[in-house]
Write a sequence for this structure.
């Protein structure tokens, strides 16, 4: 994947996650400061953990003013458009799904730059895509989706990673591979939410009483 494409994916993912975090903060009646904090944490949480795991000397948002501007723009957009978004509740999941897809591929690309193996790249993509959402849920008092059966979340990211490498293995171009994997993750995330498809339980409630 070309560097410019990676930067575009990362920027759009940051904006989408910032809107997701800010929208949830508004619904929870946070003040303006809280809205921007939740937008920021949602947008950069996964990337920060990713950078720390791969040994980057400085996490990206500390030295990248453009990232701060993108988060701010996402939070402001959520504030301005909240009345529309609130009426169309699916929009929150759309923003989250877009961020999930884009951050997965951005994380995978980071892993490929470091010449990590496929499984490590997919793990890095999943961490990049989900950890910001975990922090968002914890700070807003929600049960983290990553740790419950309520949503297909990390599984969608991991599946998208395998789609990415599967297409690459048969010679599909990097741009098409990335685009197809992002669309796959968004599709899985939205469809499973729409039809309430969940991961199977290991034990039924009655069996552990």
């Amino acid at each position: 994947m070309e560097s410019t494409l990676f930067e575009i994916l990362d920027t759009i993912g940051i904006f989408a996650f910032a809107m997701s975090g800010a929208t949830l903060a508004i619904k929870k009646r946070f003040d303006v400061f809280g809205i921007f904090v939740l937008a920021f944490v949602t947008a950069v949480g996964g990337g920060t953990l990713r950078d720390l795991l791969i040994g980057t000397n400085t996490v990206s948002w500390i030295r990248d003013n453009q990232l701060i501007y993108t988060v701010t723009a996402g939070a402001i957009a959520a504030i301005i458009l909240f009345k529309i978004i609130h009426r169309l509740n699916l929009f929150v999941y759309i923003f989250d799904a877009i961020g999930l897809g884009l951050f997965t591929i951005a994380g995978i690309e980071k892993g490929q730059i470091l010449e990590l193996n496929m499984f490590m790249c997919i793990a890095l993509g999943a961490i990049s895509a989900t950890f910001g959402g975990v922090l968002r849920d914890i700070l807003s008092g929600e049960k983290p989706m990553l740790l419950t059966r309520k949503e297909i979340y990390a599984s969608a990211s991991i599946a998208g990673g395998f789609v990415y490498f599967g297409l690459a293995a048969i010679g599909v171009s990097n741009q098409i591979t990335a685009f197809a994997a992002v669309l796959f993750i968004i599709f899985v995330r939205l469809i499973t939410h729409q039809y309430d498809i969940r991961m199977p339980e290991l034990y039924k409630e009655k069996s552990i009483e």
Observations:
- The first helix runs from residue 3 to 27.
- The CA atoms of residues 65 and 106 lie 19 Å apart.
- The helical segments are 3-27, 32-53, 60-63, 65-87, 90-113, 118-139, 154-169, 174-194.
